[in-house]
Amino acid sequence: MNGNPRQFEYGSNGVPLKDANGNVLGCYNGVCEGGDRSGNVTNANSLKSTITRLSGYGRIGFDIDPDNELYTTVNVARVTTGNIPNVGSAQFGNLTLQCANPYVPTSVQEACAANGITQFRYGVDNAIFPNSISVRTEREQYRFVAGAKGKIQAFGGDWRYDAYYQHGTGITDITVRDIPLMPRYNAAIQAVRAPDGSITCANPAAVASGCVPLNIIGGQTPSAAALAYILPGNGPYQHTRQTQDVASFSVSGEPLQLPAGALSVAFGSEYRHEFYQVNADPYGNGVVTSGAYDAQYPSDPLLNPQGGNWYAGNYRDGRGAYSVYESFLEVNAPLFNSDGVGKANLNAAGRATNYSTSGTVYTWKVGATWDTPVDGIRFRGVTSRDIRAPNLSELFAAPVTSNRTGTTDPFNPGRTLTVLQTTTGNTALRPEVARNTEFGVILSRPSWAPRLNISVDYYRIKIKSAIAALDAQTQINLCFAGVTFTCNSFDISDPNNASVTVQPFNFASIFTDGFDIEASYQVPLSGIGLPGQASLRGLATHVKNFISDRGLPNTIPIQGAGVNLGQGATPSWKVLAVQDWTTDLFSMTLQERWISAGVISNEYIVCQTNCPVSTIDHPTIDRNHLDSAFYVDISASYKFTDAVQGYVKVDNMFNKDAATVPSDITNPGLYDVVGRAFRVGMRANF
Q: How far apart are CA 311 and CA 91, in angstroms?
């Protein structure tokens, strides 16, 4: 504290729990509560990215005749974002310092001598770096379309057609600043006394290439020379270019009259070609297989020519492409139409799709609607076989390397690692296959309530061969549990150079079902002496099950319904309610958002005493709860003229805080992490 070392204060009444080998036990996800984390730099991470958007659109059409048109459109857009994903380049106990290091306090050097050791492991938040790691992303999009659409007479009826060619280009540049080059960082922290008594780097090669020693003990701000050496001005960089070319043709018409109405038919074909190429800086990508050092990224003998030299953001070169051919046929047939039994339609469709990467797949759907003779009651249902093909990123993603801190080592309980995690694509991926079924009932504008709509739908989705990737921690845990195929994906034998490779596979399955409920009602306010109209609308989703099965030995299906933490959080209930009051000049909207309370994980076992043995599948925990959240938003607008309108909006009006778990972890995709936010603006049409 205040630059002076002191004994770590454990949360277990000040007494560490250890195994026979001296490893500390009872830590949650590798983190032991206690000690002084007042310098925890993660408090400055971005909760929301800055964003700037510019977009433009143009269209030119030429009418060949009243029913047929030639057209072309142009879209141009640019989006710039910035955020702070990591502030201090934390190193969680994976550094090794020599006791003779002149920056090591005398009291620690004396403890080394008393215990007969020459080095010790060390962890640091690196709050000594004055600037936070920042990421700036620029995206540009260019889209051009030329086509023809209209209708013609053929086979005794009208046939509508739409044919077009599209070319799109997307360019993305990612720039990272104030991030350390780890070979230089590791060299700078190994300080020694020079013959003249000055402090220098221990590695002569590092000294020759400009190494400046760094003191990571005591919280002193590094010198400008040390910062310039460790945090070079040109950081990780990635330039990506993606293109898409599409040629499409579709036709629809009504070739036959059936007893209950016209038979509708639609068919068509499409060709798509998608391509991407990415180029990265030589420090992250390496110079062995491609690229070269240059003036912005000069050669340094300390750097690994294979790349992966940055703390994070080690982008790699890559490229890939695939082509798709597909054709479809869809028919809509009226089954019956009478006052006695009502009106019913049958809809059926099929599609054949050939991917250059994975072959041909077939999809289909069959659905029906029935307007019953009961006033306002309608039934609907559909079942289908659907696919999702792997995208360019999943197939050909260039390897990206980053440090994953806080990884626990099950082979050595109590040991926490910082691993170099490399995420890459997998060209052997196949399309995901899903079977979807939905059935619902609708009450639509009955005569006794002509402004009322209510619908309730049950859905059931089963996905096979789902594309998923195991995270670094899971791959290590599975190997420890006996799943041998994950053992080749990592090497943690040397805690100073631990590494894991992560890529997606078709191994998972997902099952989910639940209910979607929607209701709306509109009413004019003239009856109570007010202008305009009021409308009420509510939407609710209830997830009964969201079961993910990795399909791997020694793994169990995971129930995600009711989990409110993590990227795939699936609360049991989500409700959105909206009330509008609209006139010719003025509008006002009140909106309520509610999510039900949930858990951190359904796999945890909650207990305080007499707990069972904590396992990888079912860890024990003393609290497994995340509160519900209720947010209120309000907005209003006023039309000054037909061309000028002003508006104001307040989100999270009562400044409701996000629910968190220990270490202040929350889910920004589910909870509001910004707090009360105001927007005021003007809109104008010219």
A: 10
* Structure-token match 């104030």, residue found: 178
- Closest-CA residue to 258 (of 332, 347, 365): 332
CA angle 439, 513, 564 (to 5 degrees): 140
Q: What does the alpha-carbon distance between residue 175 and residue 239 come to, in Å, rounded to a whole number?
A: 9
Summarised one tens digit per residue, pLDDT across range 489-507 is 888 888 777 888 888 888 8
pLDDT mean for each 10 residues of the chain (686 residues) = 63 55 52 49 69 95 95 97 80 83 92 92 83 92 97 87 97 95 94 92 93 88 92 94 97 92 95 94 85 89 90 88 96 94 96 94 97 95 95 81 74 80 85 96 94 97 89 83 80 84 86 97 90 95 93 82 84 96 94 94 86 80 89 95 93 90 74 91 87
SS3 41: helix
Find tokens 């070169």 and name the residue: 317
Helix (H, G, I), strand (E, B) or coil at 177: strand
Q: What does the pLDDT read at residue 211?
A: 95
Write the CB contacts of 595 (distance below 8 Å, at least 6 apart in sequence): 564, 571, 573, 574, 575, 628, 629, 670, 671
Distance CA 336, CA 346 (A): 10
CB 63 within 8 A of CB 100: no
Burial of 362: CB neighbours in 10 Å, binned 0-12, 13-18, 19+: exposed
Measure the CA–CA gap between 104 and 98, rounded to whole angstroms: 8
Number of other residues whose CB lies within 10 A of the CB of residue 52: 10
Structure tokens at 193: 């006394």
Strand (E) or helix (H) holding 353 = strand 342-355
Whole-angstrom distance, CA of residue 300 vs CA of residue 310: 13
> Cβ neighbours of residue 412 under 8 Å, at least 6 residues apart?
23
Spatial distance between the Cα atoms of 217 and 599, rounded to a whole number of angstroms: 39
**Which residue has tokens 């009502």?**
342
Residues 6+ apart with CB under 8 A from 426: 390, 394, 395, 503, 504, 505
CB 152 within 8 A of CB 184: no
Distance CA(635)–CA(391), nearest Å, equals 38
DSSP state at residue 2: T
Quote the tokens at residue 148: 């023809």
Max CA separation in the chain (angstroms):
105
Angle at 231 between CA 318 and CA 174, to 5 degrees: 35
pTM equals 0.78
Given its phi and psi angles, is residue 551 left (phi above 0), alpha (psi -120 to 50 degrees) or beta?
Answer: left
Q: For residue 287, what are its two tokens?
A: 């110079």
Give the C-alpha separation, 158 to 172, whole Å.
45
- Tokens representing 480 are 């420890």
Residue 628 to residue 562: CA distance in whole angstroms: 11
Query: Is the separation of the CB atoms in 596 and 573 below 8 Å?
Result: yes
Beta bridge partner(s), residue 34: 10
Distance CA 164, CA 155 (A): 24
Residues 277-316 have pLDDT tens digits of 999 999 999 887 666 899 999 999 999 898 889 998 888 8
* CB of 121 closer than 8 Å to CB of 96: yes
Strands (E), 357-504: 359-371, 377-388, 400-408, 416-423, 432-444, 452-468, 490-491, 499-502
Neighbour tally for 36: CB within 10 Å: 11
**So what's the pLDDT on residue 164?**
98
Closest CA to 423 of 318, 477, 500, 478: 500
- Helix boundaries (H) for 214-266: 224-230
What does the alpha-carbon distance between residue 602 and residue 624 come to, in Å, rounded to a whole number? 8
pLDDT at residue 212 in the model = 95
How far apart CA 610 and CA 608 sit, in angstroms, is: 7
